[in-house]
Design goal:
Structural class: alpha/beta
CATH superfamily of the largest domain: Mur-like, catalytic domain
Helix content: 25-40%
Number of strands: 21
Strand order of the largest sheet: 8-7-9-6-10-11-12-13-14-15
Largest sheet: 10 strands, mixed
CATH topology of the largest domain: UDP-N-acetylmuramoyl-L-alanine:D-glutamate ligase
Strand content: 15-25%
Distance between the termini: 56 Å
């Protein structure tokens, strides 16, 4: 395959295979706003494809060789199989083709200040925090984020300023194709073990990402993460650290407290300066995310005062501890958590919000993750009073019968945790409707379509 350089290849019509994905749709919007002809295909119609159609994108539902007949550049998602007919046709007819991550990395090179947010957990929230600060500081950034953010009206914003902000996902080492001026590493944990050999392989890959940051840029890392011990000044001279436990770091939070709504407040220490910071999202983990966001903005040229003021306007992205509504004085929350560490953080955050019994409906995400981390999952739900496990969301995988949701339910029960398995969403809603009590809290949790359960329950008002 050729080496793609956005500045050296001429193209006018870009076709996106898998255009309904969050990142792919954002790239399509950027190209539309830059006056390119854009088309795309996906296996099903969605809100995203309908939005793109309204913007002038020609959308094809289903894949067919004829879909790319007018394109002179094809961009494809890494989730695509090698035998996809559109991709094969592009190769056979000498049409330029490039994977999503490479294309995104090339777009970054067109901006003076590019910020890439990596980490196993917290990328979308931290990217949302940075986007909010940049918006409030009138920096007019271009933003690609893995969830909807109200302040930019969705998952993408095309700005006219110098800033390009994006999440940087480690899956299949995709973020190694990026060109960040500022690289953020929030944490490093065992995940995507269908691709990575083990945690050492993951740490090595994040170190490779860190090396992409130029000497005149900044590498911002979480000193509280034990898997990031290799991120030192000796290895990375442009290192900037943040912490909620180590006062020797560059951005340090202490005097941590929570208000009556569960929102954190803390003192931010930067050198000899101290500032009071208050957040409008719950959870101690979001203090770390806020430190990373403030540090990234500060190092990119935003004043510390403006960064602290701007982050007050961040109220979360959709599907990250998102309040969906109330039914009979029962708060219904939805959260994207699908990794044991994320589940622990979300349920811990829920403890700071007043409630009686905490219910959790969990939809495991992918068979390989559920199998590889089964014991870790079974240790992640101790802060919930009642857990309902539904079927595994397959995503990109096929069911090879290596694991089942009942395996997790049984492990939870063995630990004395009140857990049940219910397959059908309608049955879950009926069970909840019969058993939830006033002042209880319900969290639907997972990266699939589990959020539909809360929406179905709220319709029963």
């Amino acid at each position: 395959m050729f080496e793609f350089d956005i500045n050296k290849h001429d193209f006018n019509h870009v076709h996106f295979i898998g255009i309904g994905g969050v990142s792919m749709s954002g790239l399509a919007e950027i190209m539309i706003k830059n006056d390119y002809t854009v088309s795309g295909s996906d296996i099903r119609e969605s809100k995203i494809t309908n939005k793109l159609k309204n913007l002038g994108v020609e959308i094809f539902i289903g894949h067919n060789e004829s879909n790319i007949s007018e394109a002179d550049l094809v961009v494809y998602t890494s989730a695509l199989s090698d035998d996809n007919c559109e991709l094969v046709s592009a190769k056979n007819h000498d049409i330029l083709y490039v994977d999503r991550a490479t294309f995104l990395g090339q777009l970054m090179r067109k901006y003076k200040k590019s910020i890439a947010v990596s980490g196993t957990h917290g990328k979308t929230t931290t990217t949302g925090m940075i986007a909010t600060i940049l918006e409030k500081s009138l920096s007019d950034p271009t933003v690609l984020i893995g969830g909807d953010l109200d302040i930019i009206g969705g998952n993408v914003k095309i700005g006219n300023g110098n800033y390009f902000l994006t999440e940087a996902c480690e899956y299949k080492s995709n973020f190694l194709k990026f060109f960040p001026d500022i690289g953020v590493v929030l944490n490093v944990d065992a995940d995507h073990l269908d691709y990575f050999r083990d945690i050492d392989h993951i740490v090595e890959t994040f170190n490779d990402f860190a090396k992409l940051v130029p000497n005149d840029g900044f590498l911002i890392v979480n000193s509280d993460d034990s898997n990031m011990s290799s991120f030192t000044k000796e290895n990375y001279p442009n290192l900037v650290t943040f912490s909620i436990s180590d006062s020797q770091t560059d951005y340090f939070a202490d005097n941590i407290g929570f208000d009556q709504l569960g929102f954190p407040n803390f003192t931010l220490n930067v050198g000899s300066q101290s500032h009071d910071v208050s957040l409008r999202v719950v959870g101690k983990h979001n203090i770390s995310n806020a430190l990373a966001a403030i540090a990234a903005c500060h190092k990119s040229g935003i004043s510390l005062e403006d960064a602290i003021q701007g982050i007050k306007f961040f109220t979360g992205t959709h599907r990250r501890f998102e309040t969906k509504g109330l039914i009979r004085n029962i708060k219904v929350i939805d959260d994207y958590a699908h990794h044991p560490t994320e589940i622990k953080a979300t349920l811990s955050a829920a403890k700071t919000v007043p409630h009686n019994k905490l219910w959790c409906v969990f939809q495991p995400h992918t068979y390989t993750r559920t199998k590889a981390l089964l014991d870790d999952f079974s240790n992640s739900f101790s802060d919930a009073n009642k857990i309902i496990i539904t079927d595994i969301y397959a995503a990109r995988e096929k069911d090879e019968h290596i694991v089942h949701s009942t395996d997790l339910k049984n492990k939870l029960m063995d630990k004395g945790i009140d857990a049940i398995y219910i397959r059908d969403f309608e049955d879950i809603v009926n069970y909840l409707n019969e058993n939830l009590k006033s002042n209880d809290m319900l969290i639907t949790m997972g990266a699939g379509n589990v959020y539909e359960i809360g929406e179905m329950l709220l319709e029963k008002k």
